[in-house]
Amino acid sequence: MSANRSRSIAEDVAKEPADDISVLVVDDQAPIRESMVITFRREGYAVESAESGEQALELLFRKPFDLIVTDMRLNGMNGMEVLTRSKELFPDTEIVVMTAYGTIEGAVEAIKSGAYDYLTKPFQPEELTLVAERALERKGLAQRVRLLEEEVRGQDPFEGIVCASPPMNEVLKMVEQVARLDSTVLITGESGTGKELVARALHRLSPRKDKPLVIVNCGAIPENLQESELFGHAKGSFTGAYADKRGLFDEAHGGTAFLDEVGELAPMAQVKMLRFLQNGEVRRVGTTTSRNLDVRIIAATNRNLEKSVEDGTFREDLFYRLNVIPIELPSLRERREDIPPLAQHFVRRIAARMGNAQPPSISPRAMERLLKQSWRGNVRELENIIERAAALDRDGILGTDDLPFAEPERNEDRIIDQARRGSLTLSELEKEYILEVLSECSGSRKNTARRLGITTATLWRKLKQYEKEG
Predict the structure, then answer these.
(1) Which of 76, 123, 147, 188 has its CA 20 to 30 A from that of 258?
(2) How far apart (Å, rounded) are the C-alpha atoms in residues 100 and 344?
(3) Neighbours of 349 (CB within 10 A)
(4) 79, 119 in Cβ contact below 8 A?
(5) How do residues 378-405 score in pLDDT, each as one tens digit?
(6) Do you find a cis peptide bond into 122, omega within 30 degrees of 0?
(7) In this structure, how many other beta carbons lie within 10 angstroms of the beta carbon of residue 233?
(8) What is the DSSP letter of 300?
(9) What are the domain boundaries of the chain?
(10) Per CATH, is 16-148 categorized as 3.30.360.20?
(11) What is the pTM assigned to this prediction?
């Protein structure tokens, strides 16, 4: 594909916004709301809008925003309530409030409640963008300060998590924002997507980081022992209970309990879990007295708990208690940009474990094969494949012959052959492949992104880069 063709394609998408910074506009007057959306999009922000406070909170429950701009007077829930609830959910989100009824008292109240600034209607677009830039600058500075603090302490809260893709960056952004809360978190996603790593990051970034993190695999505990393991038991409470036993929640007191495979909890354990989430009380098996424990709950499941509720195998009230802050992890198929850095990460780690000073490299064709796999087992499957390849490697290069995959059946032989002969670098191979698929999809960015397994925003950024390269 010619450079001219790639330039013309990139020109078609030149006006599409980047989605690195997210903004939520809340106003019940459609003309004003739409005007602000247009203003922010011209600045390159990813913008969503809501016509009420209730709708804004629905959006916030799905994901965090970097900046919220909300009117003070709304039908139903007012702007101060939006401000307060937003700060409870995501303390790091910056908020600018607007009103056509500006008073000094209103401004002071909003700022005391956590607003960055206060705009009086009507205002010019330039005023709005200036305030937004300053608010986002403060947010960025606060994040850098936290990262420096982590460096000083020598801790990496995201240890083991490798990502370069927008979906996973959104997840990590949300983790940073909710970690300091005590709210219950429910992490969902397919097996092998890294739910435990996210739970560890939530704990490390929380005020409880110096207290225990107790990891419980609910699916590995027999149903008849779940109550005893989680909440403890008294001596003689059942056959084999030869002494008093502390439960895992006792071990987690002051810290965090991570309940993996929470959908495997037995009915009676679900009842006790609900009671604990409601009032912090636990009762050991075989006793009549309750005690209070201070434990933050992070739960995870690869099941569809809503379907389990419909089937009657999981309590609906418990589901809602667990699902206060949902975090959904994307499958590896939805974050293919992460495959190269993940593969390199596993190669280095496995080489170090095997005592090899020089980790093997991954050939361009092998990397291409990794990028095209369906990865039903997600990151865990990728790690296992890399470990197998590294164990069998003999020449310091992981090639396609080291991978347990069948040969590709698509018509990409020309590109692959060029890579084999070394006439294309990995980045050139990727560019050639993307533009080839774009041509096959008749220039449809949506279909191209779907074929490649990446987001349309990622495709847009790559096409912009090809435009700069000429």
Answers:
(1) 147
(2) 55
(3) 16
(4) no
(5) 999 999 999 988 888 887 888 888 888 7
(6) yes
(7) 22
(8) E
(9) 16-148, 166-330
(10) no
(11) 0.59
